[in-house]
Amino acid sequence: MDILLFMVIIFVASILQTSTGFGFSILATPFLLLLFEPAEAIQINLILSLIISAALIFKIRKDIDFGILKRLVIGSAIGLPIGIAVFSWIDIGRLKLGVSLIILLLTVMLMLRFRIRQRPGRDLAVGGLSGALTTSIGMPGPPLLLYFSGTDTQKEQLRATTLAFYMFIYTLSLLIQAIVAGSTKTVWTSSAMALPLVFLGLFLGQRLFRVINQRVFQIFTYVILIFTGVYMLIESL
User: Fold this and answer.
1) Distance separating alpha carbons of residues 226 and 30, to the nearest angstrom
2) Could you list the residue ranges that cross the membrane (predicted)?
3) Fewer CB in a 10 Å sphere around the end CB: N or C, the chain?
4) How far does CA 226 lie from the centroid of its chain?
């Protein structure tokens, strides 16, 4: 039963990541935490997300905003060590409670048409938050998703820039996690077992992306954010 649940989680999350650019860690991490130790769940998420990003990046590279990407990477370099310190020393339950409340509040604001302007300083700050959340709870997506939704970024640019950013942040986060928290055979065997479903999800997700218009994409975004916020809130209480 655990193996079946694991396969379903990976398959659905792979489709979501491929079709939106941000869904894998948001959907997979909470459920992987039910099946694995925290460090193992985070590392499996990082490995599979990195594989998806690497498989897609060449095909969608023309849609990347390299200016924003550069600032996100610089910001994340500051946030990554902060996140691993949080993972090592601070109660993760309290962190998840705070993050869940922020996600829900900002999602409601977005649904009420609250918008912000994209600025270089904000790119850096969002990159820093994303980096900190990657090494602490394995979920870099919420800050990026909230920010890009608030600036009404087109779905092609959102997906490409996010996946390119993940290429950097997942690689560095995995190295930091392995050094600080160590790694296990379970992480690598589980990741290898999931690869066929990841590639099937890549195939189906690419086709789904072509038929999703901007409005449907936005609704997807809100649903994923609300799901993430509610799940993290329930889990932390």
Assistant:
1) 13
2) 42-60, 72-90, 96-114, 163-181, 187-204, 216-234
3) N
4) 14
How is residue 96 written in tokens? 């998840």
Per-residue pLDDT of the chain (237 residues; tens, 9 = 90+): 588 888 888 998 888 778 776 667 777 877 887 788 877 888 898 899 888 888 888 888 889 999 999 999 999 989 988 888 877 777 767 777 877 887 788 778 777 777 788 899 999 999 999 888 887 776 777 788 778 878 878 878 888 888 889 888 888 878 877 887 788 889 999 999 999 999 998 888 888 888 877 777 778 777 877 887 887 788 777
Q: Which amino acid is at 59?
A: K
Domain regions of the chain by residue span: 2-236
Q: How many CA atoms lie within 13 A of 59 on its CB side?
A: 11
String of DSSP letters for 121-151: HHHHHHHHHHHHHHHHHS--HHHHHHHHHHT
Alpha-carbon separation of residue 68 from 43, 101, 121 (angstroms): 26, 27, 10
With the CA atoms of 80, 42, 51 and 35 taken in that order, what torsion angle do they form, in degrees rounded to the nearest 10? -170
Sequential DSSP letters for 7-59:
HHHHHHHHHHHHHHSSHHHHHHHHHHHHHS-HHHHHHHHHHHHHHHHHHHHHH
Instruction: Count the helices and strands in the chain (H runs, E runs).
Output: 10, 0
Kindly report the pTM of this predicted structure.
0.73
